[in-house]
Amino acid sequence: MRNLPATDRPPIVVAKYGGSSLATPEHIRTVADTLAAERVDGAQRVVVVSAMGDTTDELLALAGRVSDGPDARELDLLLSTGEQISAALLVMALHGLGVEAVSLTGPQAGIRTDGLHGRARITGVEPERIQLELDAGRIAVVAGFQGSTGAEIATLGRGGSDTSAVALAIAMGAVRCEIFTDVDGVYSADPRLVPQARQLPEIGFEEMLELAHQGANVLQARSVELAWVHGLELAVRQTGGDGPGTTIREIDMMENRQKVRGIATDDGLAKVTLLDLGDRPGMAASVFAPLAEAGIPVDGIVQNVGREGTADLSFIVLDTDLARTESLLRRLLPELGARDLAVAGGLAKVSIVGAGIHSAPGYPARMFAALGEAGVNIEMIMTSDIRITCVIDEKHLQAAAQALHLAFQLEQA
Predict the structure, then answer these.
(1) Angle 205-213/221-230 helices, nearest 10 degrees?
(2) Rounded to an integer, what distance in angstroms lies between the CA atom of residue 413 and that of residue 407?
(3) Which of 81, 73, 76, 92 is nearest to 29 (CA)?
(4) Handedness of CA 90, 138, 6, 1 (dihedral sign)
(5) N or C, which terminus of the chain has less Cβ within 10 Å?
(6) DSSP tag of 158
(7) What number is the average pLDDT over the span 85-114?
């Protein structure tokens, strides 16, 4: 990314407002009031916005009504309009308050991406246009979730506005990057599932990245990864709230290496198992290469110990991808030499996350005991250095989250 040279310009603050913060015209006016009041600190402001409320889902549904398989390029062009609407409306509200502001699409803001429509990655930021607007005394309101590859618009995937904000903050040398949402920070668990969940004043990049990967929807995982690489502190705060929120930064974990920091949950999953798959070199590639080509993400790959030249291979996909996955693999069964394919939908993941828990031998037993006492059966188990994940029946997700939150005493500071 091209960082602008240091000058005697005022400090730059980047703020991102999510869809829930912009869901209605009234919400947009509230954000405009906040931005107008903040002008007294003298900082230059870049505001990144998501689409209003459920606009993205509504646009996806609209596309589905006219086409069973919308072209990826055309879908990106359609979906990018949601954020552009938010940006234009917020600027109109600011103008109504006498505040100079300008709306910019992702491409106009200099966000460059690769050509993977629907899941593009940012390849660079050219922020000169934004800086010109800031130097002219305007707030730059940027449509998140999008950039350009050549002359084409490409979107960054769900939660991509978070990554837009982080990338702009890094490129412009911002003094801080704030993510505003409908909750007042990162919690020890999803408060909708665990009412006793506690707001965390701070959390390390590593733990936040794992929470995001395992289903915590506060931040897109890629945005956390990007901020971590560049050492950019993030603040997650509630729109309109006056609390400090949660700071995400590099933390010396020497005293907390064996402490569970949070419970992550994710639902809408399915398990796929290839039975008696040939146990020979290259077979796993023969399974996952076609899935990758079809754009089907997989998680939690588990292969049992081979027996008599065969092994069972299981993995997790989204429920929404299950039909495509099953259809694709059943066509490949003769080529793969597998005896059969077993699928099961309606699953979820529940994870304990904390730096260093892998080196604490009592934590797995404690987790499994808590789930057992809650009557929750475990379908699969996956681990990393800082998390233990169990795949369970979706209907037991709330009971599992509450049991683990209690077992690891996360309601305590």
Answers:
(1) 160
(2) 14
(3) 92
(4) positive
(5) C
(6) T
(7) 97
Joined tokens for residue 355: 């730096």
**pTM for the full model?**
0.85
Is 174 in the same domain as 271?
no
Tens of pLDDT, residue by residue over 295-310, are 898 988 988 766 677 8
Please check whether residue 248 lies inside any domain of the structure: no
Chosen domain end from 117, 149, 182: 182
Q: Are strands 299-303 and 310-318 parallel, antiparallel or unpaired?
A: antiparallel
Q: What is the CATH number of the domain that holds 55?
A: 3.40.1160.10
Residues 6+ apart with CB under 8 A from 195: none
Domain that holds residue 268: 262-407
Which of 151, 182, 213 finishes a domain?
Answer: 182
Residue 240: inside a domain = no
CB-based contact 172:12 (threshold 8 Å): yes
Strand boundaries in 299-370, DSSP class E: 299-303, 310-318, 340-353
pLDDT band at 275 (very low <50, low <70, confident <90, very high): very high
% of the chain exceeding 70 in pLDDT: 95
Assigned token pair, 206: 């590593």
CA atoms within 13 A on the CB side of 154: 20
